[in-house]
Amino acid sequence: WRPARRVIGARADFGRLGRSSTKRTAWSFRLAAREGAGYDARIVHAGDPPTATPVLRASGALRAQVRRLVRFRGRLEPGRYVYAARLRAETNAARTATFVSKAFTVR
Q1: pLDDT, tens only, 20-40
Q2: Are 80 and 102 in contact (CB under 8 A)?
Q3: Alpha helix locations (H) across the chain?
Q4: In what order do the strands lie in the sheet with 11-13?
Q5: How far apart are the first and last CA of the chain?
Q6: Per-residue pLDDT for 107 more than 90?
């Protein structure tokens, strides 16, 4: 036995990333974990650290073994962005997992 150092079974599915329109108002990706966890998700400018001031932000809770659709509402200005998410285990907030997507373009 070894103590867990991350959120157990944490994963992110960013789907197909490519070009999007500035008219788009809904953004999303999926998170999951094999244990309960809280999350802080954001959209930030590509090249900024994942902890930079978000353009759009969402937070909430994940139930164990249930995929969660993380949704953002709002328009993005033209540019390059990434999704970033940080999960924290319910039982020990020191156990985290961080995910950052590949960059996508808004035109």
Answers
A1: 999 999 999 999 999 999 999
A2: no
A3: none
A4: 11-13, 26-32, 68-73
A5: 50
A6: yes
